Amino acid sequence: MAGGSGGALAVDAEVVIVGGGIAGLATALALRRVGVGGVLVLERHSELRATGAALTVYPKSQRLDRAPRARRRAQAHLPLRRLRNVRPADRKALLEALAEELPPGTIRFSSKLVSINTEKAKSSPEIAVLRLDDGTVIRAKVLIGCDGVHSVVARWLGLSEPVTSGRSAVRGLAVYPDGHGLKKEVWQFLSEGLRAAMVPINNTEVYWFLVNNTVAAEKEARTDPVKILREVTDNLGRHMPPDYLDVVRHSSHDSLSWVPLLYRSPWAILTGPTARGPVTVAGDAFHPMTPDLAQGGGSALEDAVVLARAMSRAATPAEGVAAYVSERRGRAALLVAGA
């Protein structure tokens, strides 16, 4: 690390991960576990932020669970038994558990990426050159975009923009300090243009969601928790069973979200530029999908493991990135198409 021209900071890193969400932190931890050092995670917000209230993890994705502290933290937010081999988890708890496993200083907060370039010296592989909004310049041997649906890295690679599905999802986490008394099982409700579900995460918290055809009220309500709850209970979910509506009304306001459901074309995932030299993407930046198969979070964990394994076996960063993309393209496209 050294000072740059005009007082700007210049930083050298082995691996830079853009995005401090589940995909980014899981990738950082997976790389650390295969012996890759010098990992830096750039998070544009001033603290960890969990988008959505919970996620469901299927057996294939549960293999990531190898870190003792992460496992202990997660178990406090999991039901006493698996629900048909599906494990629901509190997103915030998982995010904090992953962060705790990383060395101090790995996550650089308030770091917004504004530009990406590459450069190549005569006797060394191509590297990524990143510029942040504060003027900091970072040179990285590997760049991994884990920066979500509207990924700056994916756009730089030339991947097609995600498209709308015409549907939206409301999500929330209900909190019952004295216990909710619900069985540890998934409830799902279907009707024309609507799909809803709820599932206990532990004895005091219940995750719920409602997927609907996009409505005009969404634009005004999506930033106001009170309006979101009113729209769900009085309009979208008014025909839902009383137990479901009771869960909705117990929602923590800071857990509520209402967002349009976007996805990237499976064909774009199969054939698009998902890598360029030592640069690639993972999680929603790679394969945004609708939640109908409940595989978004789990597939991000799978990306992390496959990418770390590929990097540990490759002779050069570019070869590791290429091997990762080759292995993940098919499964990612299949999940998006199935959802």
Word description of this protein:
Keywords: Monooxygenase, Oxidoreductase. It contains 10 helices and 16 strands. It is of the alpha+beta class and 339 residues long. It folds into 2 domains: 235 residues, FAD/NAD(P)-binding domain (3-Layer(bba) Sandwich), CATH 3.50.50; 96 residues, 2-Layer Sandwich (D-Amino Acid Oxidase, Chain A, domain 2). Strands 1, 2, 3, 6, 7, 8, 9, 15 and 16 form a 9-stranded mixed sheet that branches. Strands 11-12-13-10-14 form a 5-stranded antiparallel sheet. Strands 4-5 form a two-stranded antiparallel ribbon. Strand 15 and strand 16 form a beta hairpin. The longest helix is centred in the last third of the chain and has 22 residues. The chain is elongated, with a radius of gyration of 20 Å.
CATH superfamily of the largest domain: FAD/NAD(P)-binding domain
Which shape, going by the Cα principal axes?
elongated
Number of strands: 16
Characterize the main sheet. 9 strands, mixed
Please report the first level of CATH classification, the CATH class of the largest domain: Alpha Beta
What is the helix content? 25-40%
Number of helices: 10
The class by helix and strand makeup works out as: alpha+beta
CATH topology of the largest domain: FAD/NAD(P)-binding domain
Question: Separation of termini?
Answer: 44 Å
Reported CATH architecture of the largest domain: 3-Layer(bba) Sandwich
Kindly estimate the percentage of residues that lie in beta strands according to DSSP. 25-35%
Number of domains: 2
Order of helices and strands: EEHEEHEHEEEEHEEEEHHHEHEEHH
Low-confidence stretches: 61-68, 70-84
**What is the gyration radius calculated from CA atoms?**
20 Å
pLDDT averaged residue by residue: 86
